[in-house]
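Shape matters. As here.
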Amino acid sequence: MDSIRVLSIRLENTLISLICVDIVLVNMLQINQRTLMENANQDLVHKALVGLTIEQVLLKIGKPIYDKAASVLNEKYQCYIFDCYDNPQYLSTVLEELFGDAHHVVVKEIKKELMIFSHKYRISQFVEAI
């Protein structure tokens, strides 16, 4: 009878341990999900920031230039200015098509405007890629 009691206590302790492990794992999963959501939200903010900067620089040059760049991006790559955050090479190609060798001036202006945010990894990647 004592051995059954000992086994019962051990089983109970094992179940309690498993429940504790389960609780810890659930908490870790929730923390990871929160972190993923925060990172996704931060990435959307960075994408908006880069897109607005590109728009601002192009609009400073002139509305027709902005319209032409947006049109070429859409026709050639089926994307919009804000999509250049994920595909900076598209922007580089379009600016080179529109400005030839002078595209470096536009790229330099975009980089200058984004310099304050270059400590953000994805923005720095964008700045390097264009």
Notes: DSSP finds five helices and no strands in the chain. The mean pLDDT is 84. The chain has one domain: 2-129. Residues 7 and 13 are 10 Å apart (CA to CA).
